[in-house]
Design brief:
The protein is 56% helix and 19% strand. By secondary structure, the chain is an alpha+beta fold. It folds into two domains: 3-52 and 267-400, no CATH class; 81-246, no CATH class. The strands form three sheets. A six-stranded mixed beta barrel has the order 4-5-12-7-9-8.
Length: 402
């Protein structure tokens, strides 16, 4: 019997037994859908977070206040604070391309009848360079405005949309704690960083924030950018040494500050993401194996139900090879059909979950091809035992089967 005839017979057998075919397909569909959806979502999430970190700049160092240590184990942030002296010392060292002290607060914004709460971030003009912030409209504030404690601000896209709607915010005046601030620029969208929406804020000169809104003199965070060609490890070591001297820490005292290396964070994230994708792929692979076992069980039932048919074909001259080939083709077709349907279901599920997570999901072509090939292989492999069992049936015993 030629391959075309075998395929036609196999399709006919699957078509005329819809319930059995559906039960056989179910396991493969679930397994393939899991592979495609999980790998696509995992890849999209990794790409999203990676792009956010790269958007900040891989030459970025972030100094945060405090670090408590017990028995050599970091317990998280402590109570020690950063100071204006730290900023001056870091700037005077000339070891970094830029230094940007930073402080944030929350405040109500009034514009006409609109009352909106957002983050007010105070920093120096160096922040736009250090954080790789791009201006979509207008301009950023300059050093003269920083020194003059000017009441100006650069607004994020989310805050602009909620306060001004679709109108151009540049040149408009908003009231912050009873103080009029002129919007001189709008940032390009930065997206989210963890639970924080980086577009929902207004950046003002640090001198203005501290003198007008918070009354403080010290920053809550210091951003540094390494010089071109300088390794991040060397830059972090330099910053650590300078901060320890500025805080007067002895050799035996632990750091009372934390320095985060964005390049190291990115590398760690990529490593964790690879591990997670492998883990998710493993879980989905187990689902495929379970689906394969389902194929084998249903095909064994099929062999039992079709015993007389197999006996009749053998009596009419069908060889073991012909019977073996037909059952392998049937199980392979089940794998292919389950794979195709599973790819469609997994792609749809991935896109829907991505929308719920506000993360654009690009269906992984690698996952699609792997799923398709694996589903075919699983179908054939788990169809081998039922196929051999059918092929080795005795025609006489098969015809006597009731």
């Amino acid at each position: 019997m030629g391959l075309g005839r075998v395929l036609k017979t196999s399709f006919s057998s699957l078509w005329h037994n819809p319930l059995r075919t559906a039960l056989t397909l179910l396991g493969i569909i679930i397994g393939v859908a899991a592979v495609v959806a999980l790998m696509s979502i995992g890849s999209a999430t990794t790409s999203s977070v990676t792009s956010r970190i790269e958007g900040l700049g891989t030459n970025l160092l972030v100094i945060s206040p405090g670090q408590s240590v017990q028995n050599g184990i970091s317990q998280g942030l402590g109570t020690a604070s950063l100071t204006a002296k730290d900023v001056t010392t870091l700037k005077n060292s000339n070891d970094f391309a830029a230094v940007a002290p930073d402080e944030t607060t929350r405040s109500q914004i009034l514009y006409g009848a609109t009352n909106y709460q957002t983050t007010i971030e105070g920093s120096t003009p160096a922040l736009f360079t250090v954080r790789n912030l791009k201006i979509a409209k207008g301009r950023e504030f300059n050093l003269e405005e920083q020194n003059a404690r000017a009441d100006v601000g650069v607004i994020g896209t989310t805050a602009a949309q909620n306060i001004f709607g679709n109108a151009n915010p540049v040149g408009k005046t908003v009231w912050v704690s009873g103080i009029p601030f002129q919007i001189i620029g709008e940032l390009q969208s930065q997206g989210s960083s963890g639970p924080t929406n980086q577009d929902d804020k207004i950046i003002v000169p640090l001198s203005t924030l501290q003198s007008r809104l918070t009354g403080s003199t010290d920053p809550s965070t210091i951003y540094l950018s390494a010089k071109s060609g300088q390794s991040m490890t060397a830059a972090q070591n330099d910053a650590t040494s300078i901060m320890r001297q500025s805080h007067g820490l002895s050799f035996t005292q632990s750091n009372d500050f934390t320095i985060t290396n964005q390049a190291s964070l990115l590398s760690t994230l990529q490593g964790v993401s690879s591990t997670m994708e492998g883990f998710l792929g493993g879980i989905a692979g187990i689902s495929l194996i379970v689906g394969g076992i389902g194929i084998m069980n249903i095909m064994l039932v099929s062999v039992t139900e079709r015993t007389r048919e197999i006996g009749l074909r053998k009596a009419l001259g069908a060889t073991k090879g012909t019977v073996l080939r037909q059952f392998l083709v049937e199980s392979g077709l089940v794998g292919i059909l389950g794979g195709v349907i599973g790819i469609g279901v997994g792609s749809g599920a991935g896109v829907m979950i991505g929308k719920m997570m506000s993360t654009p999901v690009q269906i992984s072509l690698t996952a699609v091809w792997i799923s398709f090939v694996v589903s075919l292989v699983v179908g054939v492999i788990f169809g081998i035992y039922p196929a051999f069992r059918a092929a080795w049936l005795s025609p006489i015993d098969a015809l006597r089967f009731e």
